[in-house]
Amino acid sequence: MNNIDEHKTDDDQIVESAFQDLLEGYLRSNHRKKIDIIKRAYTFAREAHKGVRRRSGEPYILHPIAVARIVSQEIGLGSTSICAALLHDVVEDTDYTVEDIENLFGPKIASIVEGLTKISGGVVADHISLQTENFRKLLLTMSEDIRVIIIKIADRLHNMRTLDSMAPAKRFKIAGETAYIYAPLAHRLGLYAIKSELEDLSFKFEHPDSYEKINLKIAESEGNRHELYSHFATPIKERLLQKGYEYTMKARVKSVYSIWKKMQAKNIPFEEVYDLYAVRIVFQCPEDRDEDDICWSIYNIITQIYHPHPDRTRNWLSTPKPNGYRALHVTVMGPDGNWVEVQIRSQKMEDIAERGLAAHWKYKTGDKAEDGELNGWIENIKNALDNPSPDAMDMLSSIKMNLYSNEIFVFTPKGDLITLPKNATVLDLAFTLHSDLGYHCIAAKINHKLVPLTQQLHSGDQVEILTSKSQAPKAEWVEHVTTSVAKSRLAAALRKDRRQVIALGEKTFNDFLIEHGKEPTNEIVNRALARLGFKNPDEFFYKLGSGGITLDNSHLKKIFERNNNNKLMQYLTLGLVRPQESSSGQSTDDIKSIDRKQTYILRKVNGVPNYTIATCCHPIPGDDVLGIIEPHTHTVVVHKQECHEAMKIKSTYGSRIVNTMWQADNTEAFPVTIEIRGIDRLGMLNDITQLITHELKINMRSLNISAEQGIFVGKINIFAHDVTIVEQLCTQLRKIKGLQKAVRIKN
């Protein structure tokens, strides 16, 4: 008993210390000091969660305290949000109700807690229909009280910081959902610091080895980076001091995730990421009206010292981003011969850039026009949700794209400013302005010149939408819209027409079954469709109703007519189906028995792999991979962690993910493609083949090289057992005289 009492005392001390840290941070803020209500919320939450522990073993109350600390100290919200964060799991996890919260803490806090309870748990459910509804709830709460979604992001951030205690498959699901949904939401709300940390944490759990390697390389390059920064910054500092500006200047290193993303996008090693850091100048400005003038003055000082890049000046002063971000960016050629981006901001701009909306409210002057862009974006999201796609993956993808996209600014004929995502088209603008404009759009005038409705828009364009009553939405328009509003409204119109075609196809198929003496039950229909290779009935019925296929020529018709007692008839009527043999040689029953809590070993069973390699990314041993149980064939399909298809699946179908590990003595050889580039010379081809076949003794499938004007490019196709061999080959290739690039690419 004594040991138990001592353990409780230790827990109490830890909890009290965490709460005191929360209070001290709040007292240092500029908010009104409403200590009493925060203490009451803490006491209430502590009692409500008494005796409950997290998976890590710590008292559960430490989680809401940590969320409240993030809300207060990292985002900058006040007492209402702190109380709501402390109470955010009470209604979900205990017997207390929203009414109890309202009686004790008032309607504002209760309303936020209710919003958080509605979207409790993950956005992504195991069933796709539930996921659609969860995501709708998540986005709709933004229009009720934006603090709900901010606290939810803080909740997710703390869960990510403590994700180590979760099972591997659960970690993949949560990390995937975070990267796919929460990081873009944080980006759109201006929570840059949190957005970057969410991306880094997701990357850490999805690619632990790559994360550690990049972190190590960042640390190793710190000394050289500091020297370069000092050389670059010294003349700028001297001129700023002469002008009498009060400022801070520092170098900000790119996040691990953004470095890795650049390496992947450009197929380059870490050593070739030259813009590893950006320089930020933050100046004090007592008067808001002087901000822009000082920004441009500092810009002039910098560009008098270093040459600016002609196409990389970004003016976010006169036209802020929808999340409130304002700054002046200029990229200049540094003294070491590398481009360096310099971000120029006032202290107010810095606060808004790092803390987003919370800081925006702090500086509000009462003019609601400041929030116009954000309110407009939230309204667009609501409109998109009015006609959601039945495919939750499509809805997630289109709205996520709008969360992360860069913006352009166009004008209506009357001079109204409209914000759209980069690459938006005339159709996007038409649907943004009004549904009817989108449905009946035939063309547009951009800067008084006639253009088609598929024309991409650019910042500064003045656009007049042209319509015709005879125009109707077309399926091919889907390829020419980017905004979630346009996609959802267009999809709704097309679905209406599609339903009529599906109904016709269903009737045709049912008549066909009846003609052959079969009652069209769901069981028979589903089995017949599986035999015909269609994933869902609507897909088949639409093809049939639109004339894309006919039953007279179908495989099913021939089998029916051949023998009424054939295997298909037994398959349809009796359901005598043998366990499927997957392409990996493992039966369906074996796959279904996989324990998703355990690591699935990728190996050969009786000489046949117990997995299938995904053709979209072609992973090999040593790659960061995960397994996805394919629902139709019930095989374990192995994807690279960074594979786009895998990212969509793991953030949508969490129940199908299984943690995987390659068998240590895997002897299977996998096809790999390496791209090379360099300066052509006599003997280059011989040096490459000698290295591959004689020195490294690697099995080469093919080598294709072409040279033009002294530069050669080529692809080497090899068989490799693991990533180590591929990395060794690329390293050795880059040592060949004149060969400047050797990287693995997608097959």
Task: Set out the fold topology.
Layout lengths: L1 H26 L7 H14 L13 H14 L3 H8 L3 H4 L4 H8 L1 H12 L9 H17 L1 H16 L6 H21 L3 H15 L1 H13 L1 H22 L3 E7 L2 H11 L10 E7 L7 H15 L2 E8 L12 E6 L5 E8 H9 L1 H6 L9 H15 L5 H13 L2 E5 L5 E5 L4 H8 L1 H5 L1 E6 L2 E4 L10 E5 L16 H32 L6 H11 L4 H9 L9 H8 L4 H7 L14 H5 L7 E3 L1 E2 L2 E2 L2 E2 L11 E5 L6 E5 L3 H7 L6 E2 L1 E3 L7 E10 L4 H12 L3 E10 L2 E10 L2 H12 L4 E7 L2
Parallel strand pairs: 2-5, 11-18, 14-16
Antiparallel strand pairs: 1-2, 3-4, 4-5, 6-7, 8-9, 8-10, 12-13, 15-16, 15-17, 19-21, 19-22, 20-21
CATH superfamily of the largest domain: Hypothetical protein af1432
CATH topology of the largest domain: Hypothetical protein af1432
Helix-strand makeup class: alpha+beta
Strands across the major sheet, in which order?
1-2-5-4-3
Proportion of residues in β-strands = 15-25%
Low-confidence parts: 1-7, 124-131, 365-373, 561-591
Task: Tally the structural domains.
Answer: 5
What's the main sheet like? 5 strands, mixed
- The pLDDT mean sits at 80
Count of DSSP E strands?
Answer: 22
Terminal CA distance reads 63 Å
Q: How many H/I helical runs? A: 30
Shape: globular
What's the CATH architecture of the largest domain? Orthogonal Bundle
CATH class of the largest domain: Mainly Alpha
Radius of gyration: 30 Å
Helical residue percent band = 40-55%
